[in-house]
Write a structure and sequence with these properties.
The chain has 11 helices and 9 strands. With 323 residues, the chain is mainly alpha-helical. The strands form 4 sheets. The protein has a 3-stranded antiparallel sheet. The N and C termini lie far apart (55 Å).
C-alpha cells in the first residue's frame, strides 16, 4: 500500500522515457538562465544574516537556498517552499521513531504532499505546456496519466533529489573548511579556486551514502561472486574515500586535481540529472560568501541526522565575520 514507484527504480526503456520528460530542465542553456536568479537569491539570503552573532547555518542558508530553488523548478508559490522541504525531510525520517511512531504515520504527511501536487498536476494538464517540472509531467505521453502512487513517487524523487543533496553539501562545505583551516586560508588567498572546491565539497560530504541495485546477471566483482537477482549496495561514501583514487582521501583539499572523479552523483543511466544545478548553486553561493565575509566560523556542536542513507546535517551553529 505504501509503494512509491520512481524511475530511479526502473530499468530502460521505462526509466529512459520517464527520465527524459524532466531532463530538459537541467540542460546547460537553461542553467545559464537560472544563474542570475540563484545569485540574486543567494545575495538576499546572505545579506539578511546577522553579523558576529550565532545562528544555525542549515536553517537560514542551506534550507533557504535549496527550498527557493525547488519552488522555482516546480513553479509553485515561494511561500510554500518550506512545505516542500518538510516533505523531503518526512521521507528521510519515515523510519525514525523520534519523528513518527510508525511509517504509516509519516505517510499521512506524504499524502498531504500528493494532494498538494495533484491539484497543480491536474490544472497544468488544462494549461499550455510550460517549462516547469509539473507541467512537463502533465503533458508528456509517458507521465500524463500516472496513478496517484506514481505521481507521488516522481514528485518525492524530484524533491529529495533537488533538496537533500545540495542542502547537505552547502552545510558540509562550511564543516570541511572549518575542519581544515589551512584549506580555508587557501580559499581566502585565492577565491578563484571555488570551481575546483565545489566537486571536492561534494566528494568529501557525499550527501547520499549509498544506493541499492539488483544484479541482472551472474558476475564477479573484486573477487566476490554476485548472483543474478542479488541485491547489491553501492557505497558511494566508500568509493569517495578510496585511497587508490584519492590520495589522503579523508582530507578536504580544495584544489584536489581529480575531485571530479567522485561517485557522489551515481553512475551510468541513473547518474544524477541535477548534478550541474547542484554544482552551480554551490559555486554561486561560495562566490557570494567570499565577497561578503572573511570567515564562516563554526562555534558549537554540529548535529547530524541519525540516517544511514542521507548524510544529513540539521544544525551548524556559526558566526559570520565581515571583511
Amino acid at each position: 500500500a505504501f509503494a512509491l514507484p520512481m524511475f530511479i527504480q526502473e530499468d530502460p526503456p521505462k526509466h529512459d522515457k520517464q527520465r527524459k520528460v524532466v531532463t530538459p530542465m537541467f540542460i546547460p542553456r537553461n542553467l545559464a538562465e537560472l544563474e542570475p536568479l540563484i545569485r540574486e537569491r543567494a545575495g538576499h539570503i546572505l545579506d539578511d544574516l546577522p553579523i558576529n552573532e550565532e545562528f544555525n547555518w542549515v536553517k537560514h542558508v542551506s534550507v533557504e537556498l535549496t527550498g527557493q530553488m525547488l519552488a522555482t523548478l516546480f513553479d509553485v508559490p515561494q511561500e510554500d517552499r518550506l512545505k516542500l522541504v518538510h516533505w523531503s525531510d518526512t521521507v528521510q525520517n519515515l523510519g525514525d521513531p523520534e519523528f513518527f511512531e510508525t511509517p504509516e504515520q509519516g505517510f499521512q504527511e506524504l499524502f498531504a504532499c500528493l494532494a498538494y501536487f495533484t491539484e497543480f498536476y491536474e490544472a497544468r494538464k488544462k494549461e499550455p505546456p510550460k517549462f516547469d517540472l509539473i507541467s512537463m509531467l502533465a503533458h508528456d505521453e509517458s507521465t500524463k496519466d500516472m496513478s496517484p502512487q506514481e505521481l507521488l513517487g516522481k514528485i518525492i524523487l524530484l524533491i529529495v533529489g533537488g533538496n537533500d543533496t545540495t542542502r547537505n553539501s552547502i552545510s558540509g562545505g562550511v564543516l570541511a573548511l572549518n575542519k581544515y583551516p589551512d584549506q580555508y586560508e587557501k580559499l581566502l588567498q585565492n577565491p578563484g579556486l571555488i570551481p575546483k572546491m565545489v566537486p571536492e565539497i561534494i566528494r568529501w560530504q557525499t550527501p547520499l551514502a549509498h544506493m541499492a541495485r539488483t544484479a541482472l546477471a551472474d558476475t564477479e566483482l573484486g573477487g566476490k561472486h554476485i548472483k543474478k537477482g542479488d541485491k547489491v549496495v553501492m557505497w558511494y561514501l566508500s568509493g569517495n574515500r578510496d585511497e587508490q583514487v584519492f590520495p589522503e582521501a579523508d582530507k578536504f583539499i580544495i584544489n584536489r586535481d581529480n575531485a571530479r572523479q567522485h561517485v557522489a552523483f551515481g553512475f551510468g543511466v541513473h547518474r544524477c540529472m541535477g548534478n550541474r544545478l547542484a554544482e552551480m548553486q554551490l559555486r554561486v553561493l561560495w562566490e557570494e560568501i567570499q565577497t561578503r565575509f572573511s570567515r564562516v566560523e563554526i562555534v558549537g556542536d554540529v548535529v547530524r541526522l541519525p540516517n544511514n542513507f542521507i548524510r544529513g546535517i540539521s544544525e551548524v551553529p556559526v558566526v559570520l565575520h565581515p571583511h
